[in-house]
Amino acid sequence: MTRSSPVFSCQAVDLRFGAVHALRAVNLQIGRGERVALVGANGSGKSSLLRLFHGLVKPTAGLLNRDTSIRQAMLFQRPHMLRASAANNVAIGLWIQGLSWREANERALLALARVGLADQAKRAARAMSGGQMQRLALALAWSMKPDVLLLDESTASLDPHAKREVERLMEDLAADGIGLVFASHNLGQVKRLADRVLYLERGQVLVDLPVADFLMRIGLRKCQPKHRCLLKESGYEVFQWFEPVSACRVCFICYCLCSKLASTEHHGGLYHLHRAIGPLCTSIA
Question: What is the pTM of this model?
Fold first, then answer.
């Protein structure tokens, strides 16, 4: 796989939080302008890897290199908003970075217009809907002129309409040359937004493939899966492997297949789904 010069490079990186081994022997590179999806069950290490890339945590062992010439921004699943207007939430961040208040306000209004919130500039940010808050967070990120944007399940708690709006903005940012590294449980979203997929389990990167290879049977055969599960996504057949994960023993494919349940973490419902289609999963060898 040909990639551009790396913005992030990990060599045998481990990350521990006390007794919890969050990341194990991670080796990977992410190039400028790539759109990389991180997939895996809850607790697999997706958020830890994003936080590591953003400098919020330091590796316990190994070597992490970041391109110091790039600018980056990170969005969380539930963005924190100041007790201020939407415009001021963006402007304050720019002002802290050294812009004059007048210039910060001007750029804030441009950023709000970029994400379709120009008419909400004076509205209290904390009174906005979840989708509007994520778009406001994207406006702040865009105003910083980042080279790469890190997103930690930023659409997981949104309704379908808000999710589509945020995805559209992510696509627009990627079209402008901004790299994306995002965690997601939604395989449809991965297909739409990513060009490369990293599958994590128990802190290890087990698979690193172009998205087409990840989704198609020919690519997955190279990964030596223990089992395969057949599902239909957007009208075509996709083969995927699964491993039992978490206390409820929900296989990864069932977890991702039922995105509505996955986004609300209804593990009991997913367990029954897995039991219902389990024989089908294991019969496809």
Answer: 0.75
